[in-house]
Description:
By secondary structure, the chain is of the alpha+beta class. The protein is built from seven helices and twelve strands.
Amino acid sequence: MAYIANPIFDAVFKYMMEDQAVTKCFIGIINKKIKALKLKPQEKTYHKTDADVTYMLTQRLDFIAEIIDEHKKKTKVLIEIQKSNRSYHADVLRFRGYLAQQYQSDDLPIITIYILGFDLKDLPYPAVHAHLVCKDLFYEKNIENPSEFLDKLTHQTYVIQVPRLKPVLRNRLSELLDLFNQEYRLSDVKPGNRTLNVPYIPKDKDISLIMKRLEKANADEALREKLNDEEFADMAYEEMFGKLDRKVLRLEKRLKK
């Protein structure tokens, strides 16, 4: 049994991924083994001009890094955590805009990992990997090793739906994602929702390393203050835009019908 900080919170996830050994284990289990890792700035400041007034805006990213795999291939990894489904349409546009910025910054292949704290109704699976299928249209055969050109103009995507995770440990991936299982929360409301009570100690050394980092996070006073700030920001967003987001969701459902 172990008490760990809940990694569905942005502040906890960022704390966890600040440890490079943990980051290598996390990405390595989901995607591929990593030989080298370079963390990128998690904030980007840019200027926007509106009606002759220039604003300085800061975009906070959940996680971004460059990795080199065992075949010496360099790739950019982007991880986004979204706790609640505020507005499906707005989230998709935000993710697409975020991707566009990354494509403009360099020509590295991209891997995206979306960790969602809500269900996608049309995707009833806890963990999904979507990747390029390259096909010879004349002979209708799949091409196993597509060109570098295609690799840099498409990207791999992983989608993790946290509410669909069940405490069934089939392999290393399911054991890793079980650390996000919200059934282990001490309670559904704060402060109990910030802590998970995992009822076992993992045998896998990499997952054990990640769990120890989350145990450390659970005892970190400075991190608790960041969680207070995060929850305050969520409450402020809900007060300002919650009704509007729910209205947009209702309109989206009507349009689909």
